[in-house]
Amino acid sequence: MGFDEMDVSTIWMNGEYRDWEDATVHVLTHGLHYGTGVFEGVRAYDTDRGPAIFRWEEHLERLYNSTKPYDMEIPYTREELTEATLEVIRRNDLDGGYIRPIAFYGYDSLGVSPKDNPTDVAIAAWPWGTYLGEDALENGVDVMVSSWRKHASSQIPTNAKTTGLYVNSMLAGEEARRNGYVEAIVLNKEGNVAEGPGENIFMVRDGKLYTPGLSQSILDGITRDTVITLARERGYEVDDSATISRGELNTADELFFTGSAAEVTPIRKVDNVVIGEGTRGPVTEELQSAFFDLVERRTDDHEEWFTYVDEQ
């Protein structure tokens, strides 16, 4: 669904609520030319108490931390960004959906150095369903190992969610789709498993969970952390600093992606090799159910992870 088909009307930008079509930037914006922006992807869920933003504080913390390598200063407090986000959800009359805060170097000069450019900030929100397809959550997705490698943290900071770095993700994802797959898996420079283009990855083997550690050039995913917590609460052993070789993917009992957009999505094939039974595995299903029970508030667990729009 394109934005023009959605019933959304308002974006917060630089301290003002603007009509959706008027939230624009100059063509010589620094961030457009050099990818000098940071962003977040956050979901709000429809609950009995109205829309609830999932782990907003953690996303906000990561947004501010992402600015640090770029010497970027967001000219708004966390409280101001929170209130703006809540109001955008209200003005767009959303029960749930996807939230995109972004900060980027704006328009002033076009040298590579951004020192003379302002930091522009915007927050949008819109309805967004299943990221990898309507049946992906139940039936899983077919993926390929991309020929594109994930950049190393010694080259560009991998713990910052930087706009320009998603060129790497786009190349990997589009390569996969051109070859008939739904999504990609990206290896790091050593040839070990890093992550998906917009997702972290988990492997299940003999009832134990493995996910690449931060040293493997991955983003420290908030949904990744959520699933690790849920798994350990259910008695699973989780190695969250794993090194996973490409070959181990093919012999896994189960594989699944996690991410704010992808949520918990099973992987049924890698490079046309069937994973496990070729269906959503039992561990994946248990953790996926636990995740949706949590975010849709069918349980009172982890109340501290939710910001309720109608109660602010």
TrEMBL record:
One MF term from GO for this chain? L-isoleucine-2-oxoglutarate transaminase activity
Q: Which NCBIfam families match?
A: ilvE_I, PRK06606.1
InterPro entries, A to Z? Aminotrans_IV, Aminotransferase-like, B_amino_transI, BCAT-like_C, BCAT-like_N, BCAT_family, Class-IV_PLP-Dep_Aminotrnsfr
Q: Which UniProt keywords apply?
A: Amino-acid biosynthesis, Aminotransferase, Branched-chain amino acid biosynthesis, Pyridoxal phosphate, Transferase
Q: Could you confirm whether the keyword Amino-acid biosynthesis appears in this record?
A: yes
Pathway given for this chain reads: Amino-acid biosynthesis; L-leucine biosynthesis; L-leucine from 3-methyl-2-oxobutanoate: step 4/4; Amino-acid biosynthesis; L-isoleucine biosynthesis; L-isoleucine from 2-oxobutanoate: step 4/4; Amino-acid biosynthesis; L-valine biosynthesis; L-valine from pyruvate: step 4/4
Q: Which species expresses this protein natively?
A: Haloferax massiliensis
Q: Which family does it belong to?
A: Belongs to the class-IV pyridoxal-phosphate-dependent aminotransferase family.
Q: What does this protein do?
A: Acts on leucine, isoleucine and valine.
Q: State the reactions this protein catalyses.
A: L-valine + 2-oxoglutarate = 3-methyl-2-oxobutanoate + L-glutamate; L-isoleucine + 2-oxoglutarate = (S)-3-methyl-2-oxopentanoate + L-glutamate; L-leucine + 2-oxoglutarate = 4-methyl-2-oxopentanoate + L-glutamate
Q: Which cofactor does it need?
A: pyridoxal 5'-phosphate
Might you give the EC number(s) for this enzyme? 2.6.1.42
Name of the molecule in the record: Branched-chain-amino-acid aminotransferase
TM segments? none
Which BP terms does GO give this entry?
A: isoleucine biosynthetic process; L-leucine biosynthetic process; L-valine biosynthetic process
